[in-house]
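Our preliminary data section would be incomplete without showing what the modeling component actually yields. Below, a chain of 185 amino acids is followed by its predicted structure, encoded as tokens that our downstream tools consume directly.
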Amino acid sequence: MNFIDRSAENIARSIRNNYSQAGSEIALKYALSLLINSFIAFTTAIVFCVLTDHFIEALMAIVSFIALRYFSGGLHMSSSLSCCLLTIFIIISAAHISFNYSFYCSIIDIFSALILLKTAPNGIEHISKINPKYYPLLKLIAVLIVLANLFFQSTVMTAAFFCQALLTTEFSYRTRDHFEGRISK
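Predicted structure:
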């Protein structure tokens, strides 16, 4: 168990011991793990980007990534630490994209929208309480979020959207399974 999960478990146990009306320890641990994971990932990315003079870009990457991920779903890592590290890598990478928006960025945005048209929402069935009858609406919103960048023309958004679109693909799941040893060779 990594430090994120240990911290979440200790806090959840403390909450349950001191507040009998609190939710189950398992539910508290899950929620706290998500909160701690997000806090560490975004704080680390922001601090790094402040040091490299990319603070605004980091905020843009975080908002873009979170907004699209909410509607599109996507890959979940098996540990909160690996999720945290992947998130840090995506945010820092997207924030440091430094070239002018061009025809090629438009192509990447359209490609990302096409990926989401095929795959979104993905991986939310057992996590979200959203009724599956609304999944087509989630797909539409995800695609429209990406296509809005054809108007905004932000390379940071292009990078964040492309990374998130890839996280909804079967390729990303197979890659995760390979690196985490879930696939027998």
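The chain has one domain: 44-179. The mean pLDDT is 93. Preliminary results of this kind motivate Aim 1 of the renewal.
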